[in-house]
Amino acid sequence: MRDHQGKCQILNRNRMDNDNAKSGWTPKVAVFFGFFIMGFVDVVGIATNYVKNDFNLSSTLANTIPMMVFLWFAVFSIPTGILMGQIGKKKTVLLSLVITTIAMIIPFISYTFPMVLSAFALLGISNTILQVSLNPLVAAMFKKEKIASVLTAGQFIKAISSLLGPVIAGVAANCFSDWKVTFVIFSVTSLLSVLLLLFSRTGEQEFENRQSSFKSVLTLLKDKYILYCFLCILFIVGLDVGINTSAPELLIKRMGLELSRAGLGSSIYFAAKTIGAFAGTLLLLKFPPLYFLRYSLIFAIIAFVVLMFVQNLWFSLILIFIIGFTCANVFPIVFSFALQKNRQRSNEISSLMIMGVSGGAVILPVQGLMIDNFGFSASLSVLLFCLIINLLLTNIFKENAQ
Questions:
Q1: How far apart are CA 169 and CA 182, in angstroms?
Q2: DSSP 8-class letter at 112
């Protein structure tokens, strides 16, 4: 009986290999295009600054915008994993892209604060669905030894999209006198992604559409290895979102830049993440991932401590670049560790890891309260705390892995 099952698995695997060979490059382009759409969520950083200025909001109220995005990662991650087990990874990815297309056009049609919150809430829901389903879909199309490199490449594409967001918003503000044109561009791009994936054939190797439940997902946290992965992602995303929002405000408050130019801070950060992700793809072929992860965080902490006291524009931009470069590969490395722990439970592990992305909803309100009560500099200490905790978790994670 076991021999028969083994032969069936080999035949299925060979059949999927043949399907992938026949389908060519189109499915791979389609799924990696999904990483580009995934980067749209990072426009919330510069958008928060524009909306805050347009509606004259306090920092606490303005930071409800990114909170509305990242709150849904805590709410919808596990249901998405369950849904993915029922309808498949590809259909789940398509659903997320359709919702993104709708969400991005709303602020352009009706620009009120409630509608902005609604749009970014939808963006958060769609991005949650996309991140839960896209990572295992891409990983399922490649062999185990390539997963870390492939997911890092996906983050490289996501970083390019994140880099372009503040640039597009600035160009739209200067050329069209309306930064909201950014949403039209994003909506059309999302629609193109839907059409490309819809007509592509994707194959899946070594993964099963295992049925999952809330209980089966949450019980994964009993495994210390998975728990440390989850906490690492929680804090690195909180840091990422915090810097994305704080970088423009840093340049406005300390260097006196206008809002349309202050987006340079976010652009530099995401340019660094783009280069860092590309470099990480190569460096991870030579260095052990845990070693690479630990020293990346050490350099990031040093750069961030210096940034908290710098008043010079160019020095600040260099430090922002260093932080983005060193933190670029934390998420994909930890995510790949989690997926490789148990490939047969990839749907559940993915949904749990993406729930950690809700760290963005946790850190931003804390930063807003710190700004309103103790000043901007105090809010930066929250991000430094995220880095330090992440390093400590990585050390524990390293010991547990050994």
A1: 5
A2: S
Q: Which helix (H) or strand (E) is 142 found in, with range?
A: none
CB 299 within 8 A of CB 326: yes
Q: At 227, list the tokens.
A: 């728990």
Task: Provide the whole-model pTM.
Answer: 0.70
Residues 6+ apart with CB under 8 A from 170: 46, 179, 260, 261, 263
* Whether 73 contacts 124, CB under 8 Å: yes
CB of 341 closer than 8 Å to CB of 349: yes
Place of tokens 């426009």: 43
Distance CA 301, CA 388 (A): 7
CB count within 10 Å of CB 362 equals 18
Torsion over CA: 25, 27, 29, 31 (sign): negative
CA–CA separation, 94 vs 332, rounded Å?
22
Q: Which two tokens stand for residue 13?
A: 């695997």
For residue 344, pLDDT over 80 is answered with: no
Counting residues of the chain whose pLDDT is more than 90, the rounded percentage is 10
CB atoms closer than 10 angstroms to residue 245: 32
pLDDT given for residue 374 in this prediction? 83
Tokens 């839960």, located at residue: 132
By C-alpha distance, which of 263, 70, 245 is closest to 165? 263
CATH numbers and ranges of domains, the chain: 2-401 (1.20.1250.20)
> Angle, to 10 degrees, between the axis of helix 359-374 and the axis of helix 224-255?
40
Contact between 65 and 48 (Cβ < 8 Å): yes
Q: Cα(217)–Cα(345) distance, rounded to whole angstroms?
A: 9
The residue with tokens 């990585």 is 394
For the stretch 194-211, pLDDT in tens is 888 888 776 654 445 555
Question: b vs e for 25-41, b when ≥16 Cβ sit within 10 Å of the residue's Cβ?
Answer: eebbebbbbbbbbbbbb
Q: What distance in Å separates the CA atoms of residue 131 and residue 305, rounded to the nearest whole number? A: 31
Looking at residue 204, its pLDDT comes to 53
CB 135 within 8 A of CB 153: no
Instruction: Pick the closest to residue 158 from 335, 32, 321, 325 (CA basis).
Output: 32
Q: Which of 45, 391, 386 is nearest to 236 (CA)?
A: 386
